[in-house]
Design a protein that fits this description.
2 domains; binds zinc ion; two-stranded antiparallel ribbon; single chain; 2 strands; 129 residues
Protein backbone atom coordinates (compact mmCIF):
# COMPACT_ATOMS: atom_id res chain seq x y z
CA UNK A 1 0.00 0.00 0.00
CA UNK A 2 1.30 3.45 -0.87
CA UNK A 3 1.72 6.22 1.67
CA UNK A 4 -0.97 8.19 -0.22
CA UNK A 5 -3.44 5.34 0.40
CA UNK A 6 -2.29 4.94 4.01
CA UNK A 7 -2.96 8.64 4.56
CA UNK A 8 -6.44 8.41 2.96
CA UNK A 9 -7.26 5.54 5.37
CA UNK A 10 -6.01 7.44 8.38
CA UNK A 11 -3.03 5.14 8.90
CA UNK A 12 -0.46 7.90 8.34
CA UNK A 13 -0.39 11.66 8.49
CA UNK A 14 2.06 12.29 5.61
CA UNK A 15 1.62 10.81 2.11
CA UNK A 16 5.22 11.60 1.18
CA UNK A 17 7.59 9.11 -0.39
CA UNK A 18 10.18 7.99 2.13
CA UNK A 19 12.90 8.74 -0.41
CA UNK A 20 11.59 11.96 -1.98
CA UNK A 21 10.59 14.52 0.61
CA UNK A 22 7.52 16.56 -0.39
CA UNK A 23 6.49 14.14 -3.15
CA UNK A 24 3.28 12.17 -2.68
CA UNK A 25 3.93 8.42 -2.76
CA UNK A 26 1.36 7.15 -5.26
CA UNK A 27 1.51 3.92 -7.24
CA UNK A 28 2.73 5.85 -10.27
CA UNK A 29 5.43 7.50 -8.17
CA UNK A 30 6.69 4.17 -6.82
CA UNK A 31 6.70 2.43 -10.20
CA UNK A 32 7.69 5.21 -12.60
CA UNK A 33 8.56 8.60 -11.13
CA UNK A 34 10.62 8.03 -7.99
CA UNK A 35 14.35 8.48 -8.68
CA UNK A 36 14.94 5.02 -7.19
CA UNK A 37 12.44 3.50 -9.66
CA UNK A 38 14.07 5.37 -12.52
CA UNK A 39 17.45 3.89 -11.57
CA UNK A 40 16.02 0.37 -11.56
CA UNK A 41 14.29 0.85 -14.93
CA UNK A 42 17.42 2.36 -16.46
CA UNK A 43 19.49 -0.63 -15.32
CA UNK A 44 16.98 -3.10 -16.77
CA UNK A 45 15.86 -1.30 -19.92
CA UNK A 46 18.01 1.75 -20.68
CA UNK A 47 16.07 4.52 -22.40
CA UNK A 48 12.67 2.86 -21.92
CA UNK A 49 11.37 5.59 -19.60
CA UNK A 50 12.56 8.40 -21.87
CA UNK A 51 10.96 6.72 -24.88
CA UNK A 52 7.63 6.35 -23.07
CA UNK A 53 7.49 9.44 -20.87
CA UNK A 54 4.49 10.93 -22.69
CA UNK A 55 2.34 7.82 -22.26
CA UNK A 56 -0.32 7.78 -19.57
CA UNK A 57 0.56 5.65 -16.59
CA UNK A 58 -2.01 3.00 -17.59
CA UNK A 59 -0.69 2.83 -21.17
CA UNK A 60 2.84 2.65 -19.81
CA UNK A 61 1.91 -0.34 -17.62
CA UNK A 62 0.36 -2.05 -20.65
CA UNK A 63 3.39 -1.44 -22.87
CA UNK A 64 4.42 -5.09 -22.51
CA UNK A 65 8.09 -4.33 -22.05
CA UNK A 66 9.81 -7.21 -20.27
CA UNK A 67 13.09 -7.64 -18.52
CA UNK A 68 14.72 -10.28 -16.42
CA UNK A 69 17.35 -10.52 -13.77
CA UNK A 70 19.12 -13.06 -11.69
CA UNK A 71 21.85 -13.56 -9.20
CA UNK A 72 24.51 -16.05 -8.24
CA UNK A 73 25.19 -16.91 -4.64
CA UNK A 74 27.90 -19.03 -3.10
CA UNK A 75 27.33 -22.03 -0.84
CA UNK A 76 26.87 -19.68 2.14
CA UNK A 77 24.16 -17.73 0.34
CA UNK A 78 26.34 -14.67 -0.19
CA UNK A 79 25.96 -12.58 -3.35
CA UNK A 80 28.60 -13.39 -6.00
CA UNK A 81 27.30 -11.75 -9.17
CA UNK A 82 24.08 -10.67 -10.82
CA UNK A 83 22.57 -9.58 -14.09
CA UNK A 84 19.67 -7.68 -15.57
CA UNK A 85 18.56 -7.90 -19.17
CA UNK A 86 16.08 -5.78 -21.13
CA UNK A 87 14.08 -8.01 -23.45
CA UNK A 88 11.37 -5.89 -25.02
CA UNK A 89 7.89 -7.14 -25.75
CA UNK A 90 7.41 -10.83 -24.93
CA UNK A 91 5.42 -13.27 -22.84
CA UNK A 92 6.19 -13.99 -19.20
CA UNK A 93 7.35 -17.46 -20.23
CA UNK A 94 9.77 -16.01 -22.78
CA UNK A 95 11.13 -13.69 -20.09
CA UNK A 96 11.69 -16.71 -17.85
CA UNK A 97 13.53 -18.47 -20.69
CA UNK A 98 15.70 -15.37 -21.20
CA UNK A 99 16.45 -15.30 -17.47
CA UNK A 100 17.54 -18.93 -17.57
CA UNK A 101 19.75 -18.30 -20.61
CA UNK A 102 21.40 -15.28 -18.99
CA UNK A 103 21.81 -17.26 -15.77
CA UNK A 104 23.58 -20.05 -17.63
CA UNK A 105 25.82 -17.49 -19.32
CA UNK A 106 26.60 -15.90 -15.95
CA UNK A 107 27.51 -19.33 -14.52
CA UNK A 108 29.82 -19.88 -17.50
CA UNK A 109 31.62 -16.59 -16.84
CA UNK A 110 32.15 -17.61 -13.21
CA UNK A 111 34.13 -20.64 -14.33
CA UNK A 112 34.01 -24.15 -12.98
CA UNK A 113 31.05 -23.91 -10.60
CA UNK A 114 28.19 -26.19 -9.66
CA UNK A 115 25.04 -24.30 -10.55
CA UNK A 116 21.42 -24.67 -9.50
CA UNK A 117 18.84 -22.62 -11.42
CA UNK A 118 15.42 -21.57 -10.16
CA UNK A 119 12.51 -20.24 -12.20
CA UNK A 120 8.89 -19.20 -11.68
CA UNK A 121 7.89 -21.12 -14.82
CA UNK A 122 7.25 -24.85 -14.40
CA UNK A 123 7.24 -25.25 -18.19
CA UNK A 124 10.71 -23.77 -18.50
CA UNK A 125 12.00 -25.88 -15.61
CA UNK A 126 10.45 -29.03 -17.10
CA UNK A 127 11.95 -28.23 -20.52
CA UNK A 128 15.45 -28.20 -19.03
CA UNK A 129 15.05 -31.03 -16.51
ZN1 LIG B 1 10.21 8.73 -4.29
Amino acid sequence: MTNANRTKRGLMEEPSCGLCINTEETTEHILRCCPQAIQVWESIMPGMLRANHKRSFVDWLDAGQAGCGGLARNEKGDWVAGFTHGIGSCSAESAEAWALLRGIQLAQTLGNVKACFESDSKRIVDAFS
